[in-house]
Amino acid sequence: MQFHCEVKVEMIRQWLQVGYQEIDAHDLPSVMSVAQIAASLEEGMPQSHRQADAIYRRWLRGVYG
Q: What is the pLDDT of residue 19?
């Protein structure tokens, strides 16, 4: 699993433009197509940002106590 909690919608759109061939070359149920990723961005990003906030808060507690 790979998760980039720091990303924004614009960054993912750029990745889709640059890496669409590599993404769509995978025919696995665990790999979303470029079209699926693009269609889910607006709906999925708020949850992703909440998760990122939780990750960073927990990490900062470890750093600063």
A: 87
